[in-house]
Model the fold of this input.
Amino acid sequence: GSDNIQNIFFIWGMSIDWQGPHQNFVAWGKMFSVFNWVLLYNYNYIKIY
Done:
């Protein structure tokens, strides 16, 4: 549920801090891709039901 998504974002935030600034762009790109996937999944789910 939403709690799992929040945990994933928290872990990503921690890893971004740990990896350093040069990794931020890659990490944010991955996070944004997953976020877009979740939005699309939810949109399709709502559309179907």
In short: The two ends are 18 Å apart (CA to CA).
